[in-house]
Amino acid sequence: MDIIVEKLVSYVSETNYDRLPKEVINETKKFILDTIGVGLAGAREPGCREVVELAKKWSLNKAGSTIIYYGDRVSPPEAAFANSVMMHALDFDDTLDSSAMHAHVSSLPAALALAEVKGKVNGKELITSVALGVDITCRIGSAIISPLSWIRTATCGSFGAAAAAAKISNATEKEILATLGIVYSQTAGNAQCLVDGGLVKRMQPGFSARSAVLSAALGSRGVTGATNIFEGEYGFFKLYERGKVKPEKVTENLGEHFGVMDLSIKPYPCCRMTHASIDAALELCNSHSIAPENIAEILVYVSKMVSDMVGDPFKIRANPQVDAQFSIPYTVAVALKKGEVFVEDFSSDTVKNDSSILEFAKKIRVLIDPELSANDISSSNMIIRMLNGGSISFKVDTLKGSPLRPMTFNECADKFKKCLEYSHKSSLIKNSDIITDFIFNLEKKKDIDEIFDYV
Prior knowledge:
Shape: globular
Distance between the termini: 41 Å
Number of strands: 6
Radius of gyration: 21 Å
Mean pLDDT: 95
CATH architecture of the largest domain: Orthogonal Bundle
Order of helices and strands: HHHEEHHHHHHHHHHEHHHHHEEEHHH
Strand order of the largest sheet: 4-3-5-6
Oligomer: single chain
Structural class: alpha+beta
Helix content: 40-55%
């Protein structure tokens, strides 16, 4: 096996809760709360109900794992898939800004699904499994230097989810290796569905979560997979990323620095590549009295990758919600018109029928800033030109919700509460404080199954 795999297998096997720094434990709990919250908010979004119905149809084991919001118990792989899709549906889950990827959305649902069928898994075990899975996802993603083509939330996330699934299952080193090798045979996820506005974009991390659960189950039964997973002739780095990686970053400071500390919590439910521009728009709203009807045009300067992915003139295609989530013109128009951006602004009916936003979005042009690195998602320079000839501008270099501008646990709890209100499910709204308190004190819980009584 290659040296990276050897080190990661030992790391997953040997790391327990007591070896996690306090700040890693606290951040992990904060992100677990956030990820469950956005999943409950996303439960009714396009594609989610279809996935849940399919999972229910295919699952015969009613003593399996719970689908949050709906309450149905299905097979663990399908529960992990459905929960992941809901957690990613609103594009409101965490991001690793440096790699334009999400981290918890595969590891958490995989760990939850297997924890439930295993039974009597305590909070410390869940925290440890999720922290390790997220760390490995972030480490692999941070090692890649090529432009976005694969959706790394799914590709890198499959390995993190596999690690989390193996850890929650108390796998041996041999079984951890097998789980990582087996999941590699299922690793996928591309950016084309993002560009084309496909609803399947929100399902790709779910495929990874499902694959991870299946891989852990197969690995525990003696099935083997590739062993030279990352640096082999047909390993992940050469085959998927054409060797454009810094492999040493995967194991750098292993066990000392954890990826959760590098993650951002999203303040807006849309692609993170739109957030710098939203931040700029909201800052200009707060500092100036701007009447949209007096604006001639808005120029937004961003990196090449951001321009390519979310900078096209806004148009509605097959999935209006996805189109809006991945559009700087749309999100900036909402920010400037309303002074805030939240989940209701991305419902299909709102996107299709709010003619004032659609017309305003036509005034917004996204241009490439040649001074930015091609992969920069944290910067945006906005210039608003008025009909009277005047102009105002603002430049963003640090995203709200990032480690440099973090959201506190209380701010996350407020976001969680708003997400539950958006779910329109009375029992969730009623139990909001109970769920928040449960996760805030997760390390004290003897059996995490209790959470499914509320979510």
